[in-house]
Structures are given as structure tokens and as C-alpha cells.
């Protein structure tokens, strides 16, 4: 029997590594198991987020956005650039360097906080034991008073579009293109599809997005979603809604995609296809048959509001459990669980988790949509403000989009905030903080915001809830 730990965390993604560091900071003897191996054969931490998800995609989004700005927008600012070109291979190398720096940083944080890094694949056994199979095949068994499962998720594959090396790829493969394909098909117009489609559209690809659902971004307030759809189509993304892929055929270096829409059977030829139809929990092989931990019908580990599984002392967090598949949600759950293990009282507010799509402009939201509130029988009042009326947005040459606040008509409590616009992912934090503290729309309206800032759009939207917006015409009767 190897060493015994107070806590063993399985998975070193944004949920697992944060949970392990927090547990160690609280004085608990902690180990974290990770199986991810780099191209060089070394174990790397950070999970999907740092290695093939959040971070590398944002590096490409930022580079490609600056490229488009230099091509088309700098002239408006009086900046003459001449013939601007993109070196895709250099862009990819920069992305890889950022990933290496960050994943290496986690290893350093483990050492600094006294977290033991165990290399290999972890499996939960019965009686508080964890089996770790090393990359060399050797097995070791560890005992822990508490176990935290943070194994994350993997891209969903669909039978009509089996992955084919270099031609039909998932989100990971889409981060490795060495040049922009002339014709790019993206199956799925959700968060990941829109981000990856935007990257390659900016770099010259003709991008067609095939989305099976009829409603664009149903999780976003529909007034904001419709505005977003118009803006992205204006940029050149051909978004086909109600397009259900029925099959693919690889013909040499091309892929023929067959799909059905409202007009019947269709087909389109692409040079590359990205499959972005969602992610599924990575729980296969994580639990021994005798572990006692239960899964739901979709493969998620069953947990309560405090991430406790059906086995005392065993917790699960992040993409492996119910709720939104978001890195920051996983991190906060990891902190909550570590605090609970250490004997503290900890809660997590699942109603105040922000979501962001890092297109340009960005889309961000927290809480309810107007449609959700009405479906639940909640009478609401709303306020909106366009960035076109923002002095800072004009100065930034970024007047697209708007901010919207949904409040309870009776109590004035903020139920949701939805934004499409420059830096929406940063602005949404104001809505999250407001909701975390049970703020009313009036509280935001009475708050002093710096001028000139993009944040003033949130302020004006709050004022508009009761018809008091200053810098747009008010259609509501003033109170």
C-alpha cells in the first residue's frame, strides 16, 4: 500500500487542479492524478481548458481578430497598414507557447502548495481507494479519506460524421490547422462552433455552419441572440438553422456533407469539416464496478448540490456532473468541495454563473432570459441600451451590440443580464456581482459608473428598466 492522503483529486483540469491547491492550502495532505501526456511524452496539467480548449482557442481568436482589424478597421482610425498578411504557422506556435507556459505554471503551483502530482490514469475503487495506472502500465493503489473526481469531458462524436484524420476533425483538431481551408464546414452553431468558425472565417475560409436546432443560441435572451446572429452573418458566417447532418463522404481531399433542412435533402462540399455538437462527461473507466458511485442515464456522475456522490467521502465536480460545462464553474465547485472537506460551510450559487462566447463582438450572459422567466410565470420588466449610443464604444470603433437587464416586475430583483458587444465577457461580471448580492435594477441604476466606459451600457440598461435611461429615447413611462 502506497501513501495515504487526506484528499486525492482525479484530474488536473480547471476543476481538479484548483480543488487540489485549495485543499493543500487548507492543510490537507493532497495528491492530484493526471494522465494527459504532451507530444514530448511528459505529463501536463490543465486538462482540456488549457491544452486544447479555452486558452488555445482564445489565443487564435485574439490573433485572428487583430488581423481583421488591421485589414479593415485600422484605416477608420487613421492608421495606414498596407498589405497585411497572417502567418498561420507563427500564430499556431504562439498559441502552443502560451499553453506550455500555463500548463507548466500549474506544475509549479503544485510544488509551491505541496500538492503531490501522480502521473497516470486514476480509478475510484471501493473503501476509499484510488488505483493509478502509470503511463508505463504499472499500477499503484492509494488510500484517501476523501476523493474528488474531476475527469472533465470530451467532444461528442456523431455517426453521420466519423472523424477522419485531417479532414473531419473535432474541436481539438480544429486548433491544429496549419493553413486556412478554402471551404470549411462546421457542424453545430453553439459556443465552440461559433468561436472556431469565426477564427477561420477571419483568416479567409468560406465558413458554412450547419445547426440542427431551429433556434439560434436558445440559452441566450432571444433579442440578444438574434442581434448576434445578424452580426455574425454580416461578418461572413453562413449559419444554416434547422440543418440536420445525415451523412458525410470523403472524396480524396474533400468532404461531401449531406443534410436535411426545411427544403429537403441537401449536400455541400468542403475542404475540412469541424464537428462541434457538444461534449459528454468523461466517466468511462473512472469508476470500478464496486466503487458504489452512481451515474445518471447520460453518463454524468450523480451528485447533490454540494457535489457529494452516493458514496460518503467521494465528490465529483465540473463537466463530469450536472450543470453547465464551464471551466470557472468547475473551479468554483472544486473550491467548495475542498472547503467542505476541511470542515467549513460552503455553498455555490448556480444561478449566478456567467457564460461567454468569445466571438467579436463577444456574447455574455448570466441568469435567466426573458423567455425563461415568462415560461416560469414570472412577470418581468426589461431595460436595454445599444452600444451605438456609447461614447466609449464610438471611440473604440466598436458600436455593435447592446446590453439587456431582466428584472422581476414586482421586486425589481435582477434575474438576468445579457450582453453582445466589445468586452462583454468582462462587463458581465458586473451582472454576476449584482445577482450574487441580490441586487435590484435600481441598485445598479443608483451606482456611479466611470465615464467614458463600456460599462455605462450596463448602467443605462439598468436605468432603462424603469424608463430612466439618459442617452436613449425612453419608451416607458417614467416613474
Automatic annotation (TrEMBL):
<dbReference type="InterPro" id="IPR036188">
    <property type="entry name" value="FAD/NAD-bd_sf"/>
</dbReference>
<dbReference type="InterPro" id="IPR016156">
    <property type="entry name" value="FAD/NAD-linked_Rdtase_dimer_sf"/>
</dbReference>
<comment type="similarity">
    <text>Belongs to the class-I pyridine nucleotide-disulfide oxidoreductase family.</text>
</comment>
<keyword id="KW-0560">Oxidoreductase</keyword>
<dbReference type="GO" id="GO:0004148">
    <property type="term" value="F:dihydrolipoyl dehydrogenase (NADH) activity"/>
</dbReference>
<keyword id="KW-0274">FAD</keyword>
<keyword id="KW-0963">Cytoplasm</keyword>
<dbReference type="Pfam" id="PF02852">
    <property type="entry name" value="Pyr_redox_dim"/>
</dbReference>
<keyword id="KW-0676">Redox-active center</keyword>
<feature type="domain" description="Pyridine nucleotide-disulphide oxidoreductase dimerisation">
    <location>
        <begin position="353"/>
        <end position="462"/>
    </location>
</feature>
<dbReference type="InterPro" id="IPR004099">
    <property type="entry name" value="Pyr_nucl-diS_OxRdtase_dimer"/>
</dbReference>
<dbReference type="InterPro" id="IPR012999">
    <property type="entry name" value="Pyr_OxRdtase_I_AS"/>
</dbReference>
<dbReference type="InterPro" id="IPR006258">
    <property type="entry name" value="Lipoamide_DH"/>
</dbReference>
<keyword id="KW-0285">Flavoprotein</keyword>
<keyword id="KW-0520">NAD</keyword>
<dbReference type="InterPro" id="IPR001100">
    <property type="entry name" value="Pyr_nuc-diS_OxRdtase"/>
</dbReference>
<dbReference type="InterPro" id="IPR023753">
    <property type="entry name" value="FAD/NAD-binding_dom"/>
</dbReference>
<keyword id="KW-1015">Disulfide bond</keyword>
<feature type="domain" description="FAD/NAD(P)-binding">
    <location>
        <begin position="5"/>
        <end position="334"/>
    </location>
</feature>
<dbReference type="InterPro" id="IPR050151">
    <property type="entry name" value="Class-I_Pyr_Nuc-Dis_Oxidored"/>
</dbReference>
<dbReference type="Pfam" id="PF07992">
    <property type="entry name" value="Pyr_redox_2"/>
</dbReference>
<protein>
    <recommendedName>
        <fullName>Dihydrolipoyl dehydrogenase</fullName>
        <ecNumber>1.8.1.4</ecNumber>
    </recommendedName>
</protein>
Amino acid at each position: 500500500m502506497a501513501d495515504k492522503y487526506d484528499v486525492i483529486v482525479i484530474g488536473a483540469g480547471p476543476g481538479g487542479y484548483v480543488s487540489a491547491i485549495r485543499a493543500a492550502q487548507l492543510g490537507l495532505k493532497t495528491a492530484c492524478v493526471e494522465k494527459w501526456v504532451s507530444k514530448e511524452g511528459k505529463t501536463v496539467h490543465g486538462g482540456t481548458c488549457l491544452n486544447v480548449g479555452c486558452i488555445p482557442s482564445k489565443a487564435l481568436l485574439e490573433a485572428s481578430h487583430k488581423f481583421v482589424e488591421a485589414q479593415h478597421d485600422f484605416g477608420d482610425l487613421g492608421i495606414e497598414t498596407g498589405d497585411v498578411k497572417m502567418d498561420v504557422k507563427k500564430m499556431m506556435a504562439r498559441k502552443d507557447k502560451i499553453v506550455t507556459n500555463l500548463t507548466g505554471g500549474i506544475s509549479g503551483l503544485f510544488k509551491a502548495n505541496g500538492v503531490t502530482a501522480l502521473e497516470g490514469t486514476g480509478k475510484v475503487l471501493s473503501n476509499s481507494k484510488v488505483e493509478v495506472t502509470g503511463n508505463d502500465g504499472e499500477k499503484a493503489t492509494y488510500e484517501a479519506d476523501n476523493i474528488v473526481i474531476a475527469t472533465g469531458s470530451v467532444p461528442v462524436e456523431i455517426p453521420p460524421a466519423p472523424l477522419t484524420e485531417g479532414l473531419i476533425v473535432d474541436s481539438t483538431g480544429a486548433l491544429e490547422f496549419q493553413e486556412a481551408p478554402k471551404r470549411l464546414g462546421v457542424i453545430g452553431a453553439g459556443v465552440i462552433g461559433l468561436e472556431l468558425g469565426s477564427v477561420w472565417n477571419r483568416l479567409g475560409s468560406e465558413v458554412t455552419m450547419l445547426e440542427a436546432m431551429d433556434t439560434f443560441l436558445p440559452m441566450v435572451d432571444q433579442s440578444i441572440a438574434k442581434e448576434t446572429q445578424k452580426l455574425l452573418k454580416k461578418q461572413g458566417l453562413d449559419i444554416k438553422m434547422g440543418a440536420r447532418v445525415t451523412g458525410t463522404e470523403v472524396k480524396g481531399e474533400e468532404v461531401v456533407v449531406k443534410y436535411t433542412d426545411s427544403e429537403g435533402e441537401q449536400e455541400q462540399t468542403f475542404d475540412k469539416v469541424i464537428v462541434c455538437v457538444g461534449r459528454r462527461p468523461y466517466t468511462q473507466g473512472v469508476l470500478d464496478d464496486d466503487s458504489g458511485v452512481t451515474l445518471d442515464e447520460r453518463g454524468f456522475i450523480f451528485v447533490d448540490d454540494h457535489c457529494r456522490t452516493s458514496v460518503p467521502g467521494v465528490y465529483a465536480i465540473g463537466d463530469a456532473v450536472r450543470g453547465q460545462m464551464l471551466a470557472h464553474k468547475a473551479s468554483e465547485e472544486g473550491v467548495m468541495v475542498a472547503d467542505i472537506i476541511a470542515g467549513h460551510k460552503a455553498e455555490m450559487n448556480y444561478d449566478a454563473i456567467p457564460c461567454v462566447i468569445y466571438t467579436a463582438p463577444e456574447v455574455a450572459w448570466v441568469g435567466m432570459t426573458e423567455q425563461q422567466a415568462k415560461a416560469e410565470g414570472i412577470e418581468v420588466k426589461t431595460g436595454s441600451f445599444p452600444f451605438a449610443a456609447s461614447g466609449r464604444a464610438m471611440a473604440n470603433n466598436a458600436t455593435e451590440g447592446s446590453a439587456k437587464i431582466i428584472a422581476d416586475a414586482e421586486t425589481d430583483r435582477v434575474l438576468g443580464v445579457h450582453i453582445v458587444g466589445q468586452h462583454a465577457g468582462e462587463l458581465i461580471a458586473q451582472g454576476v456581482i449584482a445577482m450574487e448580492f441580490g441586487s435590484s435594477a435600481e441598485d445598479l441604476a443608483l451606482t456611479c459608473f466611470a465615464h467614458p466606459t463600456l460599462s455605462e451600457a450596463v448602467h443605462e440598461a439598468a436605468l432603462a428598466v424603469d424608463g430612466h435611461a439618459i442617452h436613449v429615447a425612453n419608451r416607458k413611462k417614467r416613474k
